[in-house]
Amino acid sequence: MKDTMKVAVMLGIGRMGFEERPIPKVKPNEILVKLDYVGVCGSDIHYYETGRIGNYIVQPPFILGHESGGTIVKVGQNVKHLKVGDKVALEPGKTCGHCRFCREGKYNLCSDVVFFATPPVDGVFAEYVAHEADLCFKLPENVDTLEGALIEPLAVGFHAANQGEAHAGQTAVVFGAGCIGLVSLMALKAEGVNTVYVVDIMEKRLEKALEIGATAVINSSKVNPIEEINRLTAGEGVNLVIETAGMEITTRQAISVAQKGSNIVLVGYSKTGEMVLPISLAIDKELTFKSVFRYRHIYPMAIEAVASGKIDLKSIVTNIFDFDDIQNAMDMSISDKSNIVKSVIKIW
User: Fold this and answer.
1) Which of 9, 12, 226, 329 is most exposed, with the fewest beta carbons within 10 Å of its own?
2) Residue 138 pLDDT > 80, yes or no?
3) Is the domain covering 4-138+318-346 a CATH 3.40.50.2000 domain?
């Protein structure tokens, strides 16, 4: 194996380039993964467009990317459950393991987390990465590394469904048909929610939602989604709402269409960070609001759902770009949002 690897770096807002960097050394509890595919996440695009998310500010040159799948090429001396040649999906966040949240099993709430592509921690738009073996999950024979890269967003969808206490017999609506909206739809269907409506303004994304199992889709640029959901549910509304668009208008609509006593799960981040909502209506309905910050203990169930055929992750991928074409991949993911649902970078 050579000593250096190619990495794609963000050189500034809207600018990508390449560098040669040393291949990471493997610590005793780590493995070295030859990365095959890395997904382009909304957070990657946001950093690329603006240079920051909240207090996390990019200092170029910076490596983006955190949704990854690949093949093990080296294992640390303490690693016993994985071997060279295994295909793995990488959970991108290493937590402290000692704080109250980690001890309670809510490790996604740990404040001392090292997470790929969250400044100042570099991501994985690279040929190789060394990562904690306990955060690398072996993929079954019938699950490939492209699907492995998409386990990360699917984990968000499953966490959203779990936060909403999804179960058979419910009627649900997902606001937003981007990647996270679509994986939330997939997770709801896998957990037995047969009736799921999806709301968006982009027709191609709504078509994709229908393709992967939505009961009906609503283009809110053409019809009033509150009126349409009331029509579809004979005025009863829905038992569960998952909001992934991160917009005030859709969150207000979520409150309107939710049945009394039901759950609303907030997944999407508002661009402003603030919203004005009809809280009196929410109180009158005794609604429960849950939110999602990443995920916890989800990778095994997400991988099993894909391996068993309950979820076809490849169906959400609309564009696969070569590693050398990463500048175009990032630019198109911004400029062609009406057609691109999910982009993936093929590293090798």
Assistant:
1) 12
2) yes
3) no
